[in-house]
Amino acid sequence: MPECKVWRNPLNLFRGAEYQRFYWATQKEPLTFYDMNLSAQDHQTFFTCEGDAGKAEYEIMQTAWRERNPVVRIKAAKNALEINPDCAPAYILLAEEEATTIVEAEKILRTALKVAEGNYKKSQTFQHQGAIAEGIHRRDTNVLIYIKRRLAMCARKLGKLKEAVKMFRDLTKEIPPIMNVLNIHENLLEALLEMQAYADCQAVLAKYDDISLPKSATICYTAALLKARVVAEKFSPDIASKRGLSPAEMSAVEAIHRAVEFNPHVPKYLLEMKQLILPPEHILKRGDSEALAYAFFHLNHWKNVEGALNLLHCTWEGTFRMLPYPLERGHLFYPYPTCTECADRELLPSFHEVSVYPKKELPFFILFTAGLCSITALLALLTHQYPESMGIFASTTLNWFSLPFHFVKERIESVWPCNLLQQLSRI
Q: What SUPFAM superfamilies does this protein's entry cite (predicted)?
């Protein structure tokens, strides 16, 4: 996996119903132009093809994704629907940006689903009639998958968990293995955790937590949560330090170390040591953007497991003792990428303080002792080389330090008579 490959956030929010509402409340832009440009490129790649050349509605949609003003984008989508009511990408844009509630977005997406299914069936019959026909069918497939996924996410947000889980399961079966980059299994895991169906979560992890598949914070931290759930309720650091860790506790701690090694920024958000913000539309694996996206949706799942956050709090920092040189050599994963900070600064809004890889901090006593020894050695060397100059410097320094004491003595003598001071000294 390339070091700084940017991935589409599988749990990204709806622009109109969620990101825009945040802007209205705070007057802060939750998305950067870099992040939105990446989304525009994604939409152009998946929702357009060579076969759209000459079709006015699809040419309008090609430019609509690139528009920075949301009002212009929405107007372009409506113009495309006036030309062709079966233009599914236009419905997608309206659901994402014009709808101000999840209920409205779901209503538009259901209309889009009917249109997309019709387009898919039409293109399916002609897909073997050349490269252009195949491209149109691929585009229609992408549109259909996207709409089904967003509908499932609407169901999840509206509390229809069983419906959402069924839709996500169906999608994971429909999509070929080469499309695992869509990470729909992460949506499924999150919905199952909300249902507290931990056995089903374990079954999904057994399939996707494989050495041949790319890892993510969702996979690593969900595996840690499931193992922590077995021991977290009765875990006590004092008792564990006396009797040692049991095999189950050792397994949970190792899973936490593995997760923290993959993404060291997540624990501060889960432990609420750092403030959460809305996650971006794209994430950088092992970066702060991925940590935000994971913690934003999974913090409640950790709170639902009694003692899980306490176990995380007691053990997560031990990972850094295992990794003395994380930028050069990893323990379970390849070294931590050095470019994540720069990429995260592009993805995350300016009002957010980007997390960097936690550096080991030396205790104050060690720093103080090192400084004192260095200064003493320097003074000894200077005294040996320049004894007269250092003698003058030392006497000047002592006189300068003694000035406050002389001043206090004079003030006391001016207030109290000398004979009173003598009597007091006799007493």
A: TPR-like
**DSSP labels for 328-340?**
T--SSSSPPPTTH
What is the DSSP-derived secondary structure letter of residue 54? T
The predicted-structure confidence for 245-278, as pLDDT tens digits, reads as follows 788 888 999 999 999 999 999 999 999 999 999 9
Q: Going by C-beta distance under 8 Å and a sequence separation of 6 or more, which residues neighbour residue 299?
A: 269, 270, 272, 276
State pTM to two decimals: 0.80
Nearest to 311 by CA among 243, 226, 242, 209: 226
pLDDT digits (tens, 9 = 90+) for 391-419: 887 788 777 777 777 777 777 666 655 55
Q: What is the DSSP string of 87-138?
A: -HHHHHHIIIII--SHHHHHHHHHHHHHHHHHHHHHHHHHTTS-HHHHHHHH
Domain-wise residue ranges, the chain: 32-195, 206-361, 367-425
What is the homologous superfamily of the domain 32-195 according to CATH?
A: Tetratricopeptide repeat domain (1.25.40.10)
- Non-local (6+) Cβ contacts of 73 within 8 A are 64, 65, 67, 93, 97
DSSP code, position 151? H
